[in-house]
């Protein structure tokens, strides 16, 4: 299957992408991973992207598109893939369509993870990270530490990252609504969108997604 995963920040896209890709036996292609890999290996695209980032500028769509194209042409993606973070806007969605069509391929589904905005803010703004080890993550609502402000694992100080503040989260949501959400309508016109609730336990959401993808596949 060839799937695009869409949803607001805090919807759990990265977590669901990993589970779904494993269940479907297809590679999980994340924009963040693509950038890190290209930059760390000093590829031509990586150098180009880094030059924009170092100057404090957004990386142009054509660079992101070229990275995605290169990754989708790798042998492990021949049987399908799950895209996470790409396309991020309608221009990128149009470019993806052109790429696939030129190779005689098409998308099978666009999985839209739906989460109420207040829940997104609650999920992200409630996160607290250990200063000693960023892998130790707690939450004011869902995973409270035994002692406020102290990591259960190592006793380190727990803090809120700047980009997890409520104001920042709401700004990120505005960007999502303006730039990324329009691709849902774009793909609805192609009858590709499968929308599910991303509320509940991780495994519940994964099963919900698998069931919805199967129903969508059965309709074709």
UniProtKB/TrEMBL annotation:
It is an enzyme of class 2 (transferase). GO terms for molecular function: AMP kinase activity; ATP binding. Pathway: Purine metabolism; AMP biosynthesis via salvage pathway; AMP from ADP: step 1/1. GO terms for cellular component: cytoplasm. PROSITE patterns: ADENYLATE_KINASE. CDD domains: ADK (cd01428). Pfam families: ADK, ADK_lid. Its EC number is 2.7.4.3. AMP binds at residues 31, 36, 57-59, 85-88, 92, 161, 172. Residues 127-163 form the Adenylate kinase active site lid domain. Catalyzes the reversible transfer of the terminal phosphate group between ATP and AMP. Plays an important role in cellular energy homeostasis and in adenine nucleotide metabolism. Monomer. Consists of three domains, a large central CORE domain and two small peripheral domains, NMPbind and LID, which undergo movements during catalysis. The LID domain closes over the site of phosphoryl transfer upon ATP binding. Assembling and dissambling the active center during each catalytic cycle provides an effective means to prevent ATP hydrolysis. This is Adenylate kinase. It comes from Streptomyces minutiscleroticus. The gene is adk.
